[in-house]
Amino acid sequence: MSQRELKEAFVSNLNGTSLGEVALGSFLAPLCFINRGLVWVLFYQAKGSNLLPLPLISHFLLDFATIIAPLVLSCTLWCDILHWVIVGLALVSVAVQCCVHRGTEGNRGVTAATKSFLQSHVQAGPVPIVTVFRVLVNVKTAIGILAVDFNVFPRRYAKTELYGTGVMDFGVGAYVFANALVSPEARGKTIVGSKVQHVTKQLMAVWPLVVLGLGRLASLKMTGYHEHVTEYGVHWNFFFTLAIVRVVASVLLALFPVGHSWVFAVLLGGLYQLALETTGLKAFLTHNNDRTMDFLHANKEGLFSVAGYVAIYMAGVQIGLYLMKPRTLVRDYFRVIGNFLWGSGVVYAGLFLCQAAVEPVSRRLANLSFCLWTVAQCTFFLACLGVGDMVLLTLKRASRCSFVPSSWNPHEKDKGDAVAERKRGSD
Questions:
Q1: pTM
Q2: Which terminus of the chain, N or C, has fewer Cβ atoms within 10 Å?
Q3: How far apart are CA 426 and CA 421, in angstroms?
Q4: CA-to-CA distance for 4 and 2, rounded, in angstroms?
């Protein structure tokens, strides 16, 4: 075999890992952010605010050591002991937090402190867990792309051939979901002008993705870099998928109510799965010996999987619309976290039922099981990040250190907050 064929075989015919192992990774990132916050708080308590915020290079090194390095190691050297790493980080975090809280709120009862915390407010503005979620998706995607060609990266984490749940399979769906969370529709932006003008604007907005897709296609063909054509096809790649998904979803959301985008997600995912089961579409997509016939046959995986990714995008818009609602009361965000956990459990139950009655998860087909898995895992990950953010908020309140980034800041309730709270109550 040639060197190129060996490299193609290295990333081919893989079956992924378990749903549990993918879900286990959801606990690591929040712990990393909590431990980074603990470093800030301890430094503040030792040195005061005179040396804060840290210089840019110190800030970079701290982020790399407490966030990036653990994420890289979790996909390489720590992959077989990840559960023990998470337990160890959690124990360290709990021990340090006990010291911080004992030194600042030792005279307050637990019940009184909890009640006061739930009734406290945070500064209105962008939701930190959305930013953190998108950052982590990009970081993990970069790690996976750069590491997948090396032996140190577990084969079970790489993309599966047809069926299975690899970490990189989840990363593909999570990337679409992350884009949907911050879409104009999820942020509550109304259409200015006619709907045709809005759709035209969205067409123009995706040109960077088209250029990146063409650039990737040209670079692969010119350099002879190995390709796994069953991922998206001969000419297609994920940049083209992102562009098409954005445009198709914008058309649907311009025609139908944004608040019911979850309905279209369910309908689209269900109808696409029905087509896979009742027509010859599944056999067409899994047959790999007809690539030279025409453009459709050459890129069938990329073209038809758009339906599944649009379903994921629509679900992400619905979740983003809920998450972006104005809130300042801490108790309201605990309710959001609880709803995410409950919703994730419901979707996971649907996933298990779908896998038992229909077919397993397939990123290549972007089938209904893949859509359910992506939404369930993303929602669970958001809930874990939300818990981490609440832990950081308690640290900020206890230590009075406002320099911890990527988290809520405590806020004293003012008249504007009271008006907004009464308005939400009347709604």
A1: 0.91
A2: C
A3: 9
A4: 5
